[in-house]
Amino acid sequence: MRIAIDAMGGDHAPGQIVKGALIAAREWPDTELVLVGNPEAIKAHIEGALPPNLIIHPALDVIEADDEPVRAVRRKKDASMVVAGRLLREGQADAMLSAGNTGALMTTGLLVVGRMEGIERPALAPVLPTLDNIGVLALDLGANMDAKPEHLAQYAIMGSIYREKVHGIQRPRVGLLNVGTEPGKGSELTKAAFELMERAPIHFIGNVESRDVMQRSCDVLVCDGFSGNILLKAMEGTAGAVMKELKDAFKSSLLTKLAAAIMMPGLKGLKNKMDYAQYGGAPLLGVNGLVVKCHGSSDAESVKNAVRQARLALQARLIPTLAAEIKGKEVSL
């Protein structure tokens, strides 16, 4: 398998991206990794010879975090993200991943890679952390700010297939993010989506409140990109605040410092449990190729985890399986 990596996208690019690719190349010698970006900038972060399964593909432009997505993708033809998408579309790569501009990656998926037949809107689907370490697949968490009920129903079907085929969960439970568990709760969007999801070929368990997500009250959580992104950032911010408070508390006296030294392994485990980046990147489900979005602030470990996730999806033949099953599973509107 061959995975194209946008080496220039992300807050810590290219340094952490290159470092993560090097770790992944050494861990999985059967996988060829293609670092797409400015060769000189990439080589500046490589000491010694490249692993035999790691190559550099030149792309001299970059899509910045504040670029307008559609304009950037259309005008910056030699941007690392766009070139990686082109490699995927042309069959020169089996998957691509990027930590760059989320809107631009969504646009690259639609305009360069192409939308999957039968899907109106692709969705970002990361795995959110849960207390049992299994996680909840949540979609959409930021690809589309405005969604229609039929989009949410399609997210539910795609998420259910992904959870079963890639994660091996039989008959995954699908929940709809809402302000209450009763069927009549929520906005006009969630009420209409609820009715569609009841008729969809999935194991729909009804509405789920955000406070229950970390208890893994469902295996697939469906929401619009606006609400989903707020949920994601709220969880991320809460986890960061809790860890900061614990750190400050353990620094308050000699006794607490000694306690911290004893509890350090457990605290590291807690930190990892609350960090959704540990699960790897988020696939952009609904495009005609495997596109994985890494967190914008991804470090080398996160990049390696994203490569691992891409490998699992390729081994499970996610995209062809998803395309075939979507054709056979229609939502009655």
TrEMBL record:
<dbReference type="Pfam" id="PF02504">
    <property type="entry name" value="FA_synthesis"/>
</dbReference>
<protein>
    <recommendedName>
        <fullName>Phosphate acyltransferase</fullName>
        <ecNumber>2.3.1.274</ecNumber>
    </recommendedName>
</protein>
<dbReference type="GO" id="GO:0008654">
    <property type="term" value="P:phospholipid biosynthetic process"/>
</dbReference>
<dbReference type="InterPro" id="IPR012281">
    <property type="entry name" value="Phospholipid_synth_PlsX-like"/>
</dbReference>
<comment type="similarity">
    <text>Belongs to the PlsX family.</text>
</comment>
<comment type="function">
    <text>Catalyzes the reversible formation of acyl-phosphate (acyl-PO(4)) from acyl-[acyl-carrier-protein] (acyl-ACP). This enzyme utilizes acyl-ACP as fatty acyl donor, but not acyl-CoA.</text>
</comment>
<keyword id="KW-0012">Acyltransferase</keyword>
<dbReference type="GO" id="GO:0006633">
    <property type="term" value="P:fatty acid biosynthetic process"/>
</dbReference>
<keyword id="KW-1208">Phospholipid metabolism</keyword>
<keyword id="KW-0444">Lipid biosynthesis</keyword>
<keyword id="KW-0963">Cytoplasm</keyword>
<comment type="pathway">
    <text>Lipid metabolism; phospholipid metabolism.</text>
</comment>
<keyword id="KW-0808">Transferase</keyword>
<comment type="subunit">
    <text>Homodimer. Probably interacts with PlsY.</text>
</comment>
<keyword id="KW-0594">Phospholipid biosynthesis</keyword>
<keyword id="KW-0443">Lipid metabolism</keyword>
<dbReference type="InterPro" id="IPR003664">
    <property type="entry name" value="FA_synthesis"/>
</dbReference>
<dbReference type="GO" id="GO:0043811">
    <property type="term" value="F:phosphate:acyl-[acyl carrier protein] acyltransferase activity"/>
</dbReference>
<dbReference type="GO" id="GO:0005737">
    <property type="term" value="C:cytoplasm"/>
</dbReference>
